Amino acid sequence: MDPKLLFYIIIAILIVSFIVDKIIDYLNAKHFDDEIPKELRDVFNQEEYYKSQAYKKENYRFSLITSSFSILLTLAFFLFKGFAWVDKFARNHGENEIIVALIFFGIIMIGSDILNTPFSFYQTFIIEEKYGFNKSSKRLFLVDKLKGWLLSAIIGGGVLALIIWFYEKTDEMFWIYTWILIGLFTIFMTMFYSSLIVPLFNKQTPLENGNLKEAIQDFSKKVGFKLDNIFVIDGSKRSTKANAYFSGFGAKKRIVLYDTLINDLNNEEIVAVLAHEIGHYKKNHVLFNMFMSLLLTGITLYIFSLFIGNSILSEALSVEVPSFHIGLITFGILYSPISELTGILMNFISRKFEYQADNYAKHFYNGKDLISSLKKLSKNNLSNLTPHKANVFLHYSHPTLLQRVKNLS
Ligand SMILES: [Zn+2]
């Protein structure tokens, strides 16, 4: 194949996926003013409803601006041979392939992050602030950013260096070693995420003794779910938005409740949310998701290994010296339509799982408290109650609030 043709295919993929995204966003936005279904009329009062509509519209306009800016910049970077330029710079400063790749990705990542920062700053301090969500300070915003960079330099850089080393030592067989590495890394992170990564950004304290803890323990005892670690995280230092999640497995398993969740929901509603989370565990969703993501990673790596030796991946981007890191960029874009499809499949499965977890909560606790907690969370997040079907099908990992309320009633 002619490298020029491959280059045009890449540009076409970028443009088509942008246009499809914008069409979906547009369809979704057209339904912002739809009448609210009768099951959800008690979510917002009139004033909150107007506020939620203004919030949705503002976010829609803003994402239109940021994504247009980003696609124009990306296309310009491709058309003006940006990757060849960065690659040359990295080659002038690094003596081996691993160092060159680290410099290369360092420049691309930090460059794109710096370009994005004004937008995420605006999102946090203008939009989120205006609707009362933001609790972060400018100092915290900056510190978060620096910690994020440091973390991705250490973890991302370390993993990338190992993968290139595997490639140098074993050629196409690198995919098996990389797969094992990513598998071990995923298991390690699932187990130690809460004790290694979270403390860099948040404070976690054990839930204090009292009614809530008793209610949670009573329920988990009733359904035979061993649970010793219940933590509260200070999510309120960044945002008023609430959440709860499980992390780890086996003895490392813990429930993490946002302090904002404890403020917003009553004890029965919190237990209902946890009953839903326990449902995910009992139905083996956690294991299934881990297995699926490992399987998809393996397949992707294998396909990647079939192409990586071909210098056309580098030639398409006008890079003279073929290399692993340029191949990774080209392959990543060529593969993105396929990962889009697997993403849709995973969302489809995830929505099924959400119903199952809801049903578990309904059966072993009750549907009423889960409904009222879901409604409260939607209200406090100014959620969109009338999303377009296509948007739900492509992007939603959870059923809509209406679907869940109907199922739980
Ligand atoms: Zn869930």
Provide structural commentary.
- This protein is mostly helical.
- Helices cover 73% and strands 4% of the residues.
- A hairpin with a 6-residue loop joins β3 and β4 (254-258).
- The model has no long low-confidence stretch (mean pLDDT 95).
- Bound molecules: zinc ion.
- Zinc ion binds next to α9 and α12.
What's this entry about, in short?
The chain is mainly alpha-helical and 409 residues long. The protein has helices at residues 3-30, 46-79, 82-93, 97-130, 138-170, 174-201, 211-222, 259-264, 267-282, 285-307, 312-315, 324-364, 367-380, 389-395, 401-408; strands spanning 204-206, 230-233, 244-247, 254-258.
